[in-house]
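Progress report, Aim 2. The chain analyzed during this reporting quarter is listed below.
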Amino acid sequence: MATLTVPASVPAVADDCEQLRKAFEGWGTNEALIVSILGHRDAAQRRAIRKHYADTYGEELLRSITDEISGDFERAVILWTLDPAERDAVLANEGAKKWQPGSPVLVEIACARGSAQLFAVRQAYHERFKRSLEEDAAAHVTGDFRKDLKADPKDEFLKTLRAVIRCFTCPDRYFEKVVRLAIAGNGTDENSLTRIITTRAEVDLKLIKEAYHKRNSVPLEKAVAGDTSGDYEGMLLALLGKE
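Predicted structure tokens for the chain:
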């Protein structure tokens, strides 16, 4: 159950691209306009916007975004604008390079995607990085995991196994916990928060929101608003279903 809200009457792709171009031009970037467009378009619509933007202006939309905004807001917009398979490929590449036992990124991709989705991720990974996902996983993960297993085999293996079981059997509760831990404590884990919201907004973020509310007695939107700020907050709240 997705939380993404798309207008009943969506503007023409050319109009969206023109408005985005205007948001990037001039003395200051219109961040709110970026959120109002990209934060309320589904994957097919975003794909059409990227193509038309590149055809019209001779520049990749992602490049324009990167040139104009930065920080957590940039990462949220970039990840969201990517095709789901391409997004997973980027996250998998990051996850393989920063592997730790129980590493959530690779566990989430392996356990919370269907076979067709995983095939698309593998294709996107090879197209983007010119290597296979399996090769990178073997190169970056196996060696580090072996070292960890030698150091403390029981704890590290069980940590990974528990993550796999939770994600596979109760994905909404698994993702709720990732979000809860990202928000809890003195500092926010923006990478985890951004990853879950951008990857689940078109899938089951409504169920995750319900699980979060049930577990914490606080709406997820309120928790996110209390732990983030500015345009980054605005983008996340848009994906959480704010009109």
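The CA atoms of residues 145 and 169 lie 24 Å apart. The chain has 15 helices and no strands. These observations will guide the mutagenesis work planned for the next reporting period.
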